[in-house]
Amino acid sequence: MSKEQASKRRLGRGLDGLLPPAPPSSAPSAERPITVARIEQLHRSQVQPRKRFDEEALDELAESIRAHGVLEPILVRKRPAGGYEIIAGERRWRAAQKAGLFEVPIFVRELSDESAFEAALVENLQREDLNPIETARAFKRLRDEFGLSADAIAVKIGKSRSAVANSMRLLELPEAVLDLLEDGALSEGHGRAVLQAKSPELQIKLAREAVAKKLTVREVERRARDEGGSGKKGAPAEPKKKSPNVLDLERRLSLAIGFEVRVEERGGGKGVLEIPWSDLDELDRIIARLER
Of 90, 118, 134, 188, which is the active-site residue? Predict the structure, then answer.
């Protein structure tokens, strides 16, 4: 059996491949799995890699829970401050609240921070619940906080080393492009193609163009090689008379807010800042970023 096959089989076993064995039945009752817990005893985990939940999908799950209950226990560990920290099953917990339940089935395990984070990551990967940036940030956390190499991460979650490395590279993109990836406006393949553009400003411009024109990954790659989508036909040329100081100011402002910023000098120490947007959703994101 190859290493890659072994890795895939490990992921296929689910959380059992990562979690330590349950305590024996002779262990003290405080360490045994518990059947149910009150909704308010459960708390969202800080190690949960998933940050966004689809409200429509939660409503559908809540309807199912009203009819059938929570069929799969929520994996938790004890909190020093009391109650339980959710390791796997936050979506079920949220839907149970929507369904009006007062109690949910839980399964208590004693887990280290690393094991808890790995378990949460694997469950989300198996359910395909993470967007590309949540996945990339989870891999980066395994590397930075727990000291795992790309090879070790690949073995634990059942992916190739190159897939792990390419995923983390997405985090090199400007914040504006990361937002598009998190929102689902761009795919992971589009994100890797945008990375080929030569500067953050061009990456932002190309990502917006890809969304507005519904470009394929191949089209984005081609435009990225051609100065990140600046194009040679009909695209406005970069103003030639801007001073290096103004160009540097545009660059720093674009990086600071995560969106393209244009600066025009009007003389006498006056000027204009321009922040273009492609649609109202993007305008909302710009306003939210400026209000932070």
Answer: 90
Compute CA distances 273 → 245, 261, 282, whole Å: 14, 7, 17
pLDDT digits (tens, 9 = 90+) for 49-92: 666 777 787 888 888 888 888 878 888 888 888 899 888 888 88
Residue 138 CA neighbour count, 13 Å, CB half: 29
Q: Any idea of the CA torsion for 117, 289, 229, 278, to the nearest 10 degrees? A: 120
Q: Which residues, 6+ apart, have CB-to-CB distance to 43 below 8 Å? A: 79, 83, 84, 85, 86
Q: What is the pTM of this model?
A: 0.49
Count, in order, helices (H) and strands (E) of the chain: 13, 7
Domains of the chain (ranges; CATH) run: 3-131 (3.90.1530.30), 174-229 (no CATH), 244-291 (no CATH)
| Residue 90: partners with Cβ closer than 8 Å, 6 or more residues away | 44, 45, 48, 50, 53, 74
Q: Tell me, what DSSP letter sits at residue 236?
A: P
Give dist(CA 35, CA 263) in Å, integer: 62
**250 noted as active-site residue:** no
Give the phi and the psi of residue 205 in degrees, each rounded to 5. Answer: -60, -45
